[in-house]
Amino acid sequence: MAIQPGVPEQGHVLLVDDDERLRKLMARYLTENGFAVTTAASAAQARDLLRSIDPDLLVLDVMMADETGLELTERLRADRAPSLPILLLTARGAPEDRIAGFEAGADDYLAKPFDPRELLLRIRALLRRRVMPSVLAGPVQLGAAQFDAERGELVTPRGRVRLTGAEAGLLAALAARPNQILSREALADLLAMDETGERAIDVQVTRLRRKIEVDPREPRFLQTVRGRGYILKPGA
What we know:
This protein is an alpha/beta fold and 236 residues long. The chain has helices at 20-32, 43-50, 69-78, 95-104, 116-131, 165-175, 184-190, 197-212; strands at residues 2-4, 12-16, 36-40, 57-61, 86-90, 108-111, 140-142, 145-148, 153-156, 159-162, 222-225, 229-232. The protein has a six-stranded mixed β-sheet, with helices on both faces. A four-stranded antiparallel β-sheet has the order 7-8-9-10, covered by helices on one side. Strands 11-12 form a two-stranded antiparallel sheet. Strand 4, helix 3 and strand 5 form a beta-alpha-beta unit.
């Protein structure tokens, strides 16, 4: 593992890839562009690092020998890093592979080989999305729960529920326009998603409904308007 300081205000990236050459190239490029970078060569090493550091974003290779990036993403979402933005990297760039990444809890997906400038743009977009919920003026009521936009979490009678960056960003985008229909395309644009963004929106809606709805199969708050998109109907 290695730590490269960078410029603090750009953010701290944990970069996990078992390809040493690519890992070093990415770390150097991100450092040159003002990021602090910590690197790990395996999922196990990344888990150890996450016990002692608090990065702003995780860049994670999918195909690793000890544990896949999808498996690590699922474990992190269920455990200690539910809201940490995660960007997956993989040589498998088919739409189905990308959707699998989003279903595991990733916020974005970049297929190899890629231009390092695109990596930089994706990272910056994810970091912007992470702070986007703070533009809401106050909590949003969703039945017995409230969406705390500042913290990116739900406050429920049973306690606080952390949202992923993508979930919080989607809920914030809808909550900023209550009772308005937003198309998948519009939501993908607001969340700076790529060409698979519209399908990814459907995945994030499904994940979000499991957290905000009493019965996700019969949603009360986050509803589908057939052929047009989604609408958030907040209320007690």
